[in-house]
Automatic annotation (TrEMBL):
This is VOC family protein. InterPro entries: Glyas_Bleomycin-R_OHBP_Dase (IPR029068), Glyoxalase_6 (IPR041581). Residues 11-122 form the Glyoxalase-like domain. SUPFAM superfamilies: Glyoxalase/Bleomycin resistance protein/Dihydroxybiphenyl dioxygenase. CDD domains: VOC. Pfam families: Glyoxalase_6.
């Protein structure tokens, strides 16, 4: 069977507060809001590649990183490339991110967004 025409058009993060989480990523990434259907959906357009969307999940529970056996493990995370790690971490924290205690590598910092989704800032 031939592969049909498929392309990744976006990444969707579940949250119990669509507006709060989308505003965090607008500040962090500087992307524009391209679709606004509050309270249940918002989408940010990326300068290149897939956008980032936010979907209301009233029963949302944040994942845990590093994974434990008794709570929801992380199943996906965002990698965000930076040129200078320390100011990028400080800016992310100013936007509302939380830096994790456990850091697996010197050139990567693992943080969580305000809904608890882990993401990595890494040097290129």
């Amino acid at each position: 069977m031939d592969r049909p025409d498929l392309s990744l058009s976006g990444i969707v993060l579940d949250t119990d507060d669509v507006q709060m989480l989308s505003e965090f990523y607008i500040r962090l990434l500087g992307w524009e809001l391209t679709q606004d259907e509050l309270p249940g959906w918002r989408k940010l357009g990326a300068p290149a590649g897939p956008g980032l969307s936010f979907q209301l999940e009233t029963n949302y529970r944040p994942p845990v990183w590093p994974a434990g056996t008794d709570r929801t493990p992380m199943q996906v995370h965002l990698d965000i490339q930076v040129t200078d790690l320390a100011p990028a971490v400080a800016f992310a924290q100013e936007c509302g991110a939380v830096l994790h205690d456990f850091q697996p590598q010197d050139d990567v910092r693992v943080l969580s967004d305000p809904s608890g989704h882990p993401f990595c800032l890494f040097l290129h």
